[in-house]
Design goal:
By secondary structure, the chain is mostly helical. It contains three helices and two strands; from the N terminus they run ααββα. A two-stranded antiparallel sheet has the order 1-2. α1 packs across α2. The model has no long low-confidence stretch (mean pLDDT 90).
Length: 71
Amino acid sequence: PWAIGIHKQIQTRYNTSKRISRLALKMWREQNKEVYQAVLVAGEARYNLDGESVGVITQEEVESMRGQNEP
């Protein structure tokens, strides 16, 4: 899973606006939601664009993401 605030790294690396970087991430998440949620496990690492571990997924984040799919 991505680092929190990865849109900022995308903005810098690809010289895009905040709006464009967030829109790109939103589109990717919508198309890959099931796969992303499957790898979202509390205690596992979050990664930046360079593949470096930059944080840990919390149980609250897992529950929040999975709750977005409920009707």
